[in-house]
Design a protein that fits this description.
The chain has 376 residues and is of the alpha/beta class. It folds into two domains: 272 residues, Carbamate kinase (3-Layer(aba) Sandwich); 92 residues, PUA domain (Archaeosine Trna-guanine Transglycosylase, Chain: A, domain 4). It is built from 14 helices and 15 strands. Strand 13 and strand 14 form a beta hairpin. The protein binds glutamic acid (GLU).
């Protein structure tokens, strides 16, 4: 069963597995942790569990919480070093809090701290999947955050919206509920007169992206609408529904599901798991630019052949993920390269008959094979 409306998120049949992401500004207020609000949310999580849904929590707030304790300015986001230190202090308190509040409902919390590479490397991704699956089979509620204290700029998500979408993919969840300080996606800056909230989005198009107004409104998290839309893109491609809803009210899950206040991004298609993982990859090692003929062949489900490649960028090895783009610069596909960057540059524009001599060994059937490729 596929999710078609907001109320399906509270239906164990339509949504057996739900990821709930909680933004920093909901967890931490001016007076510190918003404990009562969180108790209310945990009550809703317990209710979801009682109706037979698996729930995974992606919780922000470590940096905000740690910054308050260490008295760091800019909410601990003044520098990477501050954020790392703040997260180390805040994460202990944060996981303790979740464990305590879930425990009050007889639920066991399980902490997982992930970095970007844990979900971008296929082997580590499958490992995360196995751990999550085992935890849920054992009845625990995973509480996940980025491992901010060790994640440097190059290896970090930096926002928990995309982390939540990737976690949902890894856990084979049906839906992601992003709770933050906005009611949903508006067609323009919600502060402007006449701004309308969209109730349903079918496909995150360029027009939808144009509606996002940038950074986090609270200044506490790092997400903002841009990262929420990126999360929605990852989710829709993986066949997962995503909802943006406000957590500023009591019982936010019920407000979104029963009153229907939020924006639902409908799942677009269900790629095979490996292809969805590849399509959602955030870091790619290189770019192959292709001509119009190759672009058409990709659209028809073909492999990428050397003859259609007109440009090679980046330092990638055989097996690394690369973007395939048109000569106008539009990303057409993600795929795993059969050759390293230097070989791709050597083979670019050649027919298979010429390749053995250029390589010194028998060429592979394609530069990116169609089984290792996902058209976006
Ligand atoms: N991982 C960060 C934290 O726990 C939050 C990232 C975000 O703002 O989305 O503070």
């Amino acid at each position: 069963m596929k999710i078609a409306r907001l109320s399906d998120l509270a239906d164990a049949k339509a949504c057996p597995r739900l990821v709930v992401k909680v933004g920093s500004s909901l967890l931490v207020g001016k007076q510190g942790v918003r404990r009562e609000w969180l108790q209310g949310l945990v009550t809703e999580i317990a209710a979801a569990r009682a109706r037979g849904q698996d729930v995974i929590v992606v919780s922000s707030g470590a940096i905000a919480l740690g910054a308050a304790t260490l008295k760091l300015d800019k909410g601990g986001r003044g520098s990477l070093a501050d954020a790392q230190a703040a997260a180390a202090v805040g994460q202990i308190a944060l996981s303790g809090l979740w464990a305590e509040l879930l425990g009050a409902h007889g639920l066991t919390a399980a902490q997982l701290l992930l970095t970007l590479e844990d979900l971008e490397d296929r082997r580590r991704y499958l490992n995360a999947t196995a751990t999550l699956t085992r935890l849920m089979d054992a009845g625990a509620v995973p509480v996940i955050n980025e491992n901010d204290s060790v994640a440097t700029q190059e290896i970090r998500f930096g926002d928990n919206d995309r982390l939540a979408a990737r976690v949902a993919q890894a856990a084979r969840a049906d839906a992601v509920l992003l709770l933050s300080d906005v009611d949903g996606l508006f067609d323009r800056n919600p502060a402007e007169a006449g701004a309308q909230m969209l109730h349903e989005v079918r496909g995150v198009t360029a027009e939808i992206h144009a509606m996002a107004t940038g950074g986090s409104s609270s200044g506490m998290g790092s997400g903002g609408m841009t990262s929420k839309l990126q999360a929605a893109e990852i989710a829709e491609r993986a066949g997962i529904a995503l909802v943006i809803a406000s957590g500023l009210h009591d019982a936010p899950v019920a407000r979104a599901c029963q009153q229907g206040i939020g924006t639902l991004f409908l799942p677009r298609r269900k790629d095979a798991a490996r292809k969805a993982w590849l399509g959602g990859r955030l870091r790619l090692k290189g770019v192959l630019t292709v001509d119009a003929g190759a672009a058409r062949a990709l659209g028809r489900g073909g492999s990428l052949l050397a003859a259609g490649i007109v440009g090679v960028e980046g330092e990638f090895q055989r097996g690394d993920a690369v973007a395939i783009q048109s000569d106008a610069g539009a990303t057409l596909a993600h795929g795993l390269a059969e050759y390293d960057a230097a070989e791709c540059a050597r083979l670019m524009g050649t027919q298979s008959g010429e390749q053995a001599e250029l390589l010194g060994y028998a060429p592979r059937s394609a530069v990116v094979h169609r089984d290792q490729l996902v058209v976006l």
